[in-house]
């Protein structure tokens, strides 16, 4: 089973509380989502492989380290995942970005894929799939299916708020995928929204409601 980690760093928890507030406006919401994504990028990249490198400093040779091995792809699930991309890129600026378009049918809660555009060498990359919300898990499961179908194997899923139902479903469907979240909330309501959650992440990010 992959790792499941709730990131309880005080800065992440504080910022998450700010965007849960229903009075937090679009501009602030967007900025803080990116800030949290940057903080999460620090932790999710912790096990990136390092290699030895000799660096000539002004005073001599430093036997130092640099990141080696797999290159990174950040893959947001549209729309709301887009809100986390710039924040992740702040720490991993050389990453390529792929996009997977997915929407949930409001009645059935079933996910529907409508767009996939990935770096051509996706199979060789460490992939961070980002989406603020893990609710039923349908969207993330289908997005990761789409990635694996195209050769991806090294995948981590990064969200802001998760429901227990979604974590369980994602772990069952993709036991090889590590899951990182800023919060594990109580439950889903009968409309498939996370309670207490933060509402509709896409609408709050893009001001569409
Ligand atoms: C939201 C969210 C996730 C999905 C989570 O997207 O951004 O992708 O719901 O729900 P699930 O775990 O039950 O699948 P939505 O379908 O509202 O699309 P949007 O981002 O375009 O608003
Ligand atoms: N998608 C959202 O944006 N919010 C939820 O609470 C659940 C799914």
TrEMBL record:
EC number: 2.4.2.9
Annotated metabolic or biological route of this protein: Pyrimidine metabolism; UMP biosynthesis via salvage pathway; UMP from uracil: step 1/1
A GO term, aspect molecular function: uracil phosphoribosyltransferase activity
Cofactor note text: Binds 1 Mg(2+) ion per subunit. The magnesium is bound as Mg-PRPP.
Reaction it catalyzes: UMP + diphosphate = 5-phospho-alpha-D-ribose 1-diphosphate + uracil
GO terms under biological process: UMP salvage; uracil salvage
Any one Pfam family match given in the protein's UniProt record, by short name: UPRTase
Cofactor list: Mg(2+)
Cellular component annotations (GO), alphabetically ordered: cytoplasm
Keywords annotated in UniProt: Allosteric enzyme, Glycosyltransferase, GTP-binding, Magnesium, Nucleotide-binding, Transferase
CDD domains on file: PRTases_typeI (cd06223)
Activity regulation, per record: Allosterically activated by GTP.
InterPro entries, alphabetized: PRTase-like, PRTase_dom, Upp_B, UPRT, UPRTase/APRTase
Residues that, per the record, bind uracil: 194, 199-201
Phosphoribosyltransferase domain span: 6-208
Class of this enzyme: transferase
Residue sites binding 5-phospho-alpha-D-ribose 1-diphosphate per the record: 79, 104, 131-139, 200
NCBIfam families named in the record: PRK00129.1 (NF001097), upp (TIGR01091)
Purpose of the protein: Catalyzes the conversion of uracil and 5-phospho-alpha-D-ribose 1-diphosphate (PRPP) to UMP and diphosphate.
Family membership noted in the UniProt record: Belongs to the UPRTase family.
Protein name: Uracil phosphoribosyltransferase
Gene (name only): upp
């Amino acid at each position: 089973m992959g790792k499941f980690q709730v990131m309880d760093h005080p800065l992440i928890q504080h910022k998450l509380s700010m965007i849960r507030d229903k009075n937090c406006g679009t501009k602030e919401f967007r900025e803080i989502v990116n800030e949290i994504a940057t903080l999460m990028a620090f932790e999710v990249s912790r096990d990136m492989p390092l290699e030895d490198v000799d660096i000539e400093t002004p005073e001599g040779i430093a036997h130092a380290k640099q990141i080696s091995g797999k290159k990174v792809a950040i893959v947001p699930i549209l729309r709301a995942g887009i809100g986390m991309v710039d924040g992740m890129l702040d720490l991993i600026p050389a990453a390529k970005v792929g996009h997977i378009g997915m929407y949930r049918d409001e009645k059935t809660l079933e996910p529907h894929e409508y767009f996939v555009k990935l770096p051509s060498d996706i199979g060789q990359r460490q992939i961070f799939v980002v989406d603020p919300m893990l609710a039923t898990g349908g969207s993330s499961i289908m997005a990761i299916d789409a990635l694996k179908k195209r050769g991806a194997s090294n995948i981590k899923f990064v969200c802001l708020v998760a429901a227990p139902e979604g974590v369980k479903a994602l772990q069952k469907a993709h036991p090889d995928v590590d899951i990182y979240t800023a919060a594990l909330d109580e439950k889903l309501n009968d409309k498939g929204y996370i309670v207490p959650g933060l509402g509709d992440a896409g609408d709050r990010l893009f001001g569409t409601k």
